[in-house]
């Protein structure tokens, strides 16, 4: 059997789909379709007071590198303020976690999801935006929470009420 060589996949500075998700802007750099499901890569801009609410995913891990700014990561177990140059890994197992930009300037994160799949969830609930643009976060009503919980389940994720972690 002959070894088939595949060309590298490249993404320019403005390539990738930008989506508004919970008021943050996520640029999907690499999808599971492009990586055979092995991982997804997402460039995240988190405005002041931004960040996703409590959620969990048992079958994939999510890793973050803080490029700029600082973000508070909170879980059922601990709280950590990740500053520029910090790295945070949410391991397999499903710990409930969230993160929030508590600073007064936009935070910039790089996120890897292993295996891929979370980016498909973002594509389903997000709204397309221009690169670097922000939409206001949606009002998390009971109806919206219930709708997103149903969508999240398709992607192996659970979403909890905003006050779940206190």
- In CATH, the topology is named Jelly Rolls
Beta-strand residue fraction:
35-45%
Helix and strand run: EEHEEEEEEEEHEHE
CATH superfamily: Jelly Rolls
Q: What distance separates the N and C termini?
A: 57 Å
| Rounded mean pLDDT score | 95
**In which range does the helix fraction lie?**
10-25%
Total helix count? Answer: 3
Low-pLDDT residue spans: none
Class per helix and strand makeup: alpha+beta
What's the domain count? Answer: 1
Q: How would you sum up this structure, described in words?
A:
By secondary structure, this protein is α+β, with helices and mostly antiparallel strands. It has a single domain, classed as Jelly Rolls. It contains 3 helices and 12 strands, in the order E-E-H-E-E-E-E-E-E-E-E-H-E-H-E. It starts with 16 loop residues before the first strand and ends in a 7-residue tail after the last strand.
List the helices and strands and how they pair.
Layout: E1 17-21, E2 24-30, H1 32-35, E3 40-46, E4 55-56, E5 61-68, E6 70-75, E7 79-83, E8 87-90, E9 97-100, E10 107-114, H2 118-125, E11 127-128, H3 142-154, E12 158-159
Short description:
This protein is α+β, with helices and mostly antiparallel strands and 166 residues long. The protein has helices at 32-35, 118-125, 142-154, and strands at 17-21, 24-30, 40-46, 55-56, 61-68, 70-75, 79-83, 87-90, 97-100, 107-114, 127-128, 158-159. It has one domain: Jelly Rolls.
Fill in the keyword field for this structure.
166 residues, alpha+beta, Jelly Rolls, 3-stranded antiparallel β-sheet, 3 helices
């Amino acid at each position: 059997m002959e070894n088939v060589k595949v060309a590298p996949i490249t993404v320019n500075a403005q390539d990738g789909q930008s989506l508004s998700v919970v008021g943050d802007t996520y640029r999907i750099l690499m999808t599971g379709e492009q990586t055979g499901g092995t991982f997804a890569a997402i460039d995240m801009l988190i405005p002041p007071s931004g960040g996703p609410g409590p959620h969990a995913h048992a079958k994939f891990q999510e890793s973050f590198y803080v490029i700029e700014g600082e973000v508070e990561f909170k879980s059922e177990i601990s709280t950590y303020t990740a500053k520029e140059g910090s790295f945070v890994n949410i391991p397999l197992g499903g710990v409930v976690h969230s993160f929030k930009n508590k600073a007064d300037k936009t935070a910039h994160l790089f996120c890897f999801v292993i295996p891929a799949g979370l980016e498909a969830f973002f594509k389903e609930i997000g709204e397309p935006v221009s690169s670097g643009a922000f939409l206001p976060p949606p009002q998390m009503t009971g109806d919206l929470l219930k709708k997103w919980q149903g969508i999240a389940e398709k992607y192996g994720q659970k979403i909890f009420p905003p006050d779940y972690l206190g």
